[in-house]
Amino acid sequence: MSLRDIPNLISILRILLVIPVVWALVDERYALALILSAVAGISDGIDGFLAKHFHWQSRLGSILDPIADKLLLVASFATLAWMDLLPLWLLWLVLARDVIIVSGGLAYHYFIGEFELLPVWSSKINTALQIILVLLVIISQQWFAELTLLISIGVWAVVVSVIFSGLEYILTWGNKAWKQKANH
C-alpha cells in the first residue's frame, strides 16, 4: 500500500458508511444521519482533491468514487421511500435511469470499445438535486416539519433532472457509438 492508495481507501470507507447512514435513518436518528452524510460528503471532496492534486487518479478510483456516491444516494432514497418519506415511484425512476446508464455503458464497452466514466453536466446537477432532496427530507424530520412545499418542489426538480440527464446520456453515448461504428 502506498500514499496514492489513500483516495481509494477513502472511497471504500465511504461505501462502508452506507450501513450506518441507513441504520440512523431507520432508527429515526436524523441528526446522526445528517452527520454521517456530511462525513461522506466531506470525504468525497477530500479523496477527489487528493487524487487530482497529487495525481493519484486510478482506474479503480474512477470506479470506486461514483459507486460510493451512488450507493449512499440510492440507499438513502430507498430507505426514505421505505419509510414513506419519499414517493416509491421516485425511487423507481431514479433506479431506472441508473440501470439505463449502466446498461448503455456496458453495451458500449462490449460492442463498441472502452470508454472513460465521465459524467455529463446534467448528471452532476441531478446528483446535487437528489442530495438536496434527501437532506431536506432528513432536516424536515429532525427540525422543520413545514418544509413540505420545498420537498414537493425538490421531488419534481429531481424528476425533471432524472429525465433530462438520462436522455443526455442516451443521446451523447448513442451519438459516440454511431460515430465509432461509422468509422469502422
From TrEMBL:
Entry's EC annotation: 2.7.8.5
Protein keywords: Lipid biosynthesis, Lipid metabolism, Membrane, Phospholipid biosynthesis, Phospholipid metabolism, Transmembrane, Transmembrane helix
Catalytic activity of the protein: a CDP-1,2-diacyl-sn-glycerol + sn-glycerol 3-phosphate = a 1,2-diacyl-sn-glycero-3-phospho-(1'-sn-glycero-3'-phosphate) + CMP + H(+)
Keyword Transmembrane recorded: yes
Transmembrane annotation, as ranges: 7-26, 125-144, 150-171
Membrane topology according to the record: Multi-pass membrane protein
Gene3D superfamilies named in the record: 1.20.120.1760
Protein's UniProt name: CDP-diacylglycerol--glycerol-3-phosphate 3-phosphatidyltransferase
